């Protein structure tokens, strides 16, 4: 099974503010079949529904804040059904909630509860890694505490290759370590350390062919492109990322 390729709309946040409809059409014209949303840019609207019908784009996953996931799981399930979203993902844990190993165990308990609640509606729950999870507490990384204390039936990872490396780990090794827990992957590249300026996927320091080999080998369903900083216009960067990924997959 070849993974499905999508674009995280945060990549085009400024373009979306300037011309929402034109930007969504441009994503489809690039050849993307799927998009992943943050939920913060007005994506869940009648205008978007019409654009999805017009372009044939589909939703990979829908982003939600932790508060909504914990307190309104039915709202999340309903949104995923309405938009045909294949998973619900959260992107952030507030700093005050992740100060110790015990905090990470508490987060794991919360994630298990969320995952179990969403499983009732057949919605997988994913967490997007952002780098701070690699802080060590008495010799154990936060991410390892989280993974050891979460139920694989109810909780999945969405590693971001850039942020894994930003956290001090090797993206290939990390993805290998948790290959069985990954459902989706954010593909993001950078030129070099220590500055770590974003560059198009496959043109930077991360061994993207090795990452893609793992994705195919372990049948991860979703590869999501995200870029936050640019050397060229964001729409051009997003198109280039897709072309690079398609080329690397063909060369495997």
Number of domains: 1
Q: Taking strands numbered 1, 2, ... along the chain, how are they ordered across the largest sheet?
A: 3-2-1-13-10
Instruction: Please bin the fraction of helical residues.
Output: 40-55%
Termini distance? 13 Å
Please outline the major beta sheet.
Answer: 5 strands, parallel
CATH C-level label: Alpha Beta
How many runs of DSSP E, i.e. beta strands?
13
**CATH architecture descriptor name:** Alpha-Beta Barrel
Integer average pLDDT: 95
Given as residue ranges, the uncertain stretches (5+ residues, pLDDT < 50) are none
Name a few traits of the molecule:
single chain, 252 residues, alpha/beta, TIM Barrel, 5-stranded parallel beta sheet, 4-stranded parallel beta sheet, 13 strands, globular
Topology:
Layout: E1 4-8, H1 13-18, H2 20-30, E2 34-36, H3 46-55, E3 58-59, E4 61-63, H4 66-71, H5 73-82, E5 87-90, H6 101-119, E6 125-128, E7 136-137, E8 140-141, H7 142-148, E9 156-158, H8 161-166, H9 171-177, E10 184-187, E11 189-190, E12 198-199, H10 208-217, E13 222-225, H11 234-251
Parallel strand pairs: 1-2, 1-13, 2-3, 4-5, 5-6, 6-9, 10-13
Antiparallel strand pairs: 7-8, 11-12
